[in-house]
Amino acid sequence: MAPRVTVPKERTPINYNSREVINAKTYLEQHKIPEIIQQLTTMLFYIQPENPKKFLIDKLIHIKEKKLDAYTYFTEENLKALFKIFDVTEKGYISTKQYLCAMNDIGVKNINETPEGSQFNAISCDVFVKEGIAGLNQKFSSSS
What we know:
Blueprint: H1 19-30, H2 33-47, H3 52-66, H4 76-86, E1 93-94, H5 96-105, E2 123-124, H6 125-142
Antiparallel strand pairs: 1-2
Pfam families: EF_EFCAB10_C
GO molecular function: calcium ion binding
Protein name: EF-hand domain-containing protein
């Protein structure tokens, strides 16, 4: 007896202009789902918790209980931890390039490209946290 061969069904191409797709896109934008996913994924990448599923569940429960906005996913504590990852030599500052990379990674759109210390290529943790919080506040207040 010959082996049974299953022929895959042909997929219908996605019509990106269909009402369903537009409704889905609108829903995602209204609820800031892409930003939430980006923030949580970035936190996982930088913090690397031992149990990522528990970390995500705990983070979402915390956000729900405190009724926090999306930008508060990255707390001051999280930003300080992120800074330490970039400050591998523990000098107490990071380069402007590292700062710009980190701001981009956490989703800040209008990055202050010349924060205090940039003239010396030395961004302190305090400046990093201040700029991170300001950038995230601006991002999420302007996309409401």
